[in-house]
Specification:
Blueprint lengths: L9 E2 L15 E2 L9 E8 L10 E10 L4 E2 L9 E2 L21 E10 L11 H8 L3 E11 L2
Parallel strand pairs: 1-8
Antiparallel strand pairs: 2-5, 3-4, 3-7, 4-6, 7-8
């Protein structure tokens, strides 16, 4: 997966930050594994130790149709479901690491799935991971760094 918003491992622009424009970056997908029917995406900040080993959940979505081949900036293809961000601020809450010398690492994890999922829009990250555990046919990750 790739985005034109920032380089893999690069600095996430303010436009995509929670206190900036709070716009979800768009991604394109390539080298999609055979048998992929849908995708799921999870965005988390792995550098927040106080929230446990999973970090802070900023976004999750599933049932992204494989035929779409991409996620447009700020929107989802028809049929996709956006879950609730773990920070309780809607379906997408962009990076929000505090000011300081250290950048936080935000990981966009893309899962290629052999089926679509039957989950309600208020499903948790744990429920999403459990529902897709036996149907993952591929995975990609893209990292951005951010601080105020």
């Amino acid at each position: 997966m790739k985005t034109d918003a920032f380089e893999d491992g690069g600095i996430i622009p303010e436009r995509y930050a929670g206190r900036g424009g709070n716009v979800r970056p768009g991604f394109t997908f390539s080298n999609v594994p055979a048998g992929t029917v849908s995708f799921a995406m999870i965005l988390q900040d792995l550098d927040v130790a106080a929230s446990g080993p999973d970090g802070v959940l900023h976004w999750l979505a599933w049932n992204i149709p494989a035929k779409a081949g991409a996620l447009p900036e700020g929107s989802l293809p028809e049929g996709a479901v956006a879950g609730t961000a773990g920070v309780g601020r809607g379906t997408y809450f962009g990076p929000g690491a505090p000011a300081g010398p250290r950048y936080h690492h935000y990981v966009f994890e893309l899962y290629a799935l052999s089926k679509t999922l039957d989950l309600p829009a208020d499903a948790t990250r744990a429920q999403l991971l459990d529902a897709m555990k036996d149907i993952i046919v591929g995975k990609a990750a893209y990292v951005g760094r951010f601080r105020q």
